[in-house]
Amino acid sequence: MSRQLFTGASLAALAMLLPAAAHAQDGSRDSATEEEGEEILVRAEPLPGGLLEDKGRLGILGDQSVMQIPYSLQSMTSKQLELFNNPSLPLANVLQNNPSIRSSTSSPMYSDFSMRGVNMNGNHMMLNGVPSMFSQFTTPPSHVIDRIDITSGPNAAVNGVNMSNNGTDSGATAAPGTLNIVTKAAPLEEVNRFTSTFSGRSNFGAYFDVARRFGGNKSWGVRVNAEVLNGGLALDGAENNSNNIFLNLDHQSGSSSSNLFGGYFDLRIDGGQRWFTFGGSGSELPTAPDASTDYDFLGTTKQMHGYVVTLNHEQRLSDDWAVFANYGSMEKSGYKYNSSSALRFDNAGGFTTANVSNAQVESTENYYGQLGIRGKFATGPLRHNVALAADLSIAKYWNVSTNSQPGTIIGGLYDGVDYTSDFIIPARGNPVLQWTETNVGLTLSDVITLGKFDLLLAASMKDENFLNEVTGVRIKNNNILPTYGLTYRITPNLSIYAGHTESFSRGQLVANDTRYVNAGETLSPMKAKQNEVGVKLLAGGMLTTLAVFEMDQQNLIDVVVTDTTFRREADGKNRYRGIELSSVGQLTEQLTLTVGGLYLDAERQRTNRGLQDGRFVNGVSEWSGTAGLEFRPVERVGLVGRAVYNGEAFIDAGTGGGTTRIPGFVSFDLGANFKTGTEAVPIRLSTTITNVGNRSHWMGRGGSTTFGLSMPRTFLVSAQFDF
Questions:
Q1: Backbone region of residue 212 per phi and psi (left: phi > 0; alpha: psi in -120 to 50; beta: other values)
Q2: 34 occurs within a structural domain
Q3: How confident is the model at residue 339 (pLDDT cuts 50, 70, 90)?
């Protein structure tokens, strides 16, 4: 039934758009909505260097100038993805060019990253303004992305109402911010592009990109992107297999704009599970082993396939008023065979406990609709840019998780791992409906302008209804999420700002995993808030942002019950204070830079009996930063380099209630690109080396005592042909 609904919605949207497209194709024009020679394609413009755009999404108010938004926002372009991304690795590998973000995993089996110290993943990404289209396993493939609006500041109430499952580990919406993915639309010029890639040990990729604009004033656009990616990663025994095809259909006129994006994806990752826990009592983790070591049992895999569609429409009623609608649906299903929990080792790096294999089958259905109106008016000297929107989101989740009896694991970090004959992979079961959730919301936003001042006032009223289908427990959560901020534009290229936000949502649903004695329990509702002040300067070809922030979020911990079991529960809150600096742009005609750093003081407060008050937040580095560049000595040649730094972090020791240090690290990437070919067929050749020094290091995970292991040195070569 869900697939029929998906197909029906997609066909209905196409049915509304295609007749008009055919009408436009034969040269006809609706004189009521289009005028001869009018400009119909209004897009954000890249800043000098092309790594960022000058606009970003201010929730239901639409795209606004970055200089007027009262919190940190970077609108990362497809060029930045092209320079620093490897499609066979997690998207977080390039997201960490933003100083707020640090990758929490090197494995494409996960999409985890931290923003200002708080762990997040694909659940926190919006697709064309629509939430809950992705998950911890799935993220948008980089080849369909036109830009990424990275908001690392107080904006919880400007987007409308998100689902609570739009969060880490099925928890609350994270305090730090959101990421909005804007998909590629057809440009004015034709696109006939084929790109071939080779990465890792045997990972081959083929990418197809075709785009056309047609009709009067080229008001209609269609773009098709497809990916075939298969083969072995640099990590021995791991493979990335991704096949997808997506279509973006848009229409622009003097009175309306529409964008339909949709497609099918099939993603499978074999091997690459690289989570660990420390069961020793040492003050520092044992030295990281060779990153190319394979720790998976034979048959470790994770597979997911499904459909996703978004539809955005704006109808202008006058020069100052417009109504808008946003729709999205996602259906995915899949299975996995992996270790039920992270591998646990002692001071010498030897594995200390038996482990179990896990067979899990799951499926998800998410539906979202938003209807609103936005406009401009004046009250005396005050100018208002106002928007009002209503949201409805519906989510359903099916799951069955079957664990084997504990099996013996022989070996350690340095000599590899051997899963003995009693380590048996269980059979897959039939998924059962775990929970359903229906959210209704109402959001009001207003930017009030007086001279050089812009005051943002926003609030979302949320009616949340969550039913745990297994236990029968129903949770209702009615609250109001406020956001407000003030910007003072000293000059058009210099502004100072301050902002505040709060978020509320249902508590985390404890994973259905045998390691938790309270598996399936829904914890208490969660509250988080954030404050930020900062300055933005656009000068010398560089956009520089300096932000000082404070935020807090409920702290969730795993309390040890036995050697192999835990109880998931809340324990006070984590408080984060930090200073963030970024500068991105074109320093000279030949040199483009993206640099940034983050200082973060993260500590626990209001813990049980105050026993953990004042202690560090697990897995969070105090200092981190990124520096990347593109140097073009001549137009046809580009040299690319990047350094990623993570300072030391700490986790609670496995025994004795002590602390254990995760050493800091610096990782270097290098690349080059060369333009050749003919005028008829331009060719772009490029190569990158990730972790060029092949240095192995541990990777902390915000708020968790688990941690990851880096990937080995990874090569990527590609050839792009434009016909």
A1: beta
A2: no
A3: confident
For residue 35, being part of any structural domain is answered with no
Report CA-CA distances (Å) from 182 to 57, 112, 210, 248, 486. 10, 20, 18, 11, 26
The residues pairing with 436 across neighbouring beta strands, listed in sequence order, are 396, 467
Residue 547 token pair: 């932000």
Between 22 and 358, residue with greater pLDDT? 358
Q: Give the span between the Cα atoms of 166 and 124, in whole angstroms.
A: 6
What gap in Å lies between CA 713 and CA 245, rounded to an integer?
Answer: 29
* β-bridge mates for residue 310, sequence order: 261, 328
Pull the structure tokens for residue 263.
């497609």
Tell me whether residue 391 is in a domain: yes
The whole-angstrom separation of Cα 78 and Cα 143 is 8
String of DSSP letters for 405-452: PPB-EEEETTTEEEE-TT--PPPP---EEEEEEEEEEEEEEEEEEETT
Token readout for 129 is 């303004």
Calculated CA dihedral for residues 232, 234, 236, 241, nearest 10 degrees: -30
Specify the CATH number for the domain of residue 428: 2.40.170.20
Residue 622: closest CA among 588, 682, 664, 591:
664
The encoded tokens of residue 647 equal 């300072």
Say if residue 530's pLDDT is above 80.
Answer: yes
- Number of domains into which the chain is organized: 1
Supply φ then ψ for residue 25, to 5 degrees.
-60, -35
Question: What is the identity of the amino acid at 296?
Answer: D
**Joined tokens for residue 327:** 């729709």
| Domain that includes residue 402, residue range | 2-29+40-722
Give 612's pLDDT tier (boundaries 50, 70, 90): confident
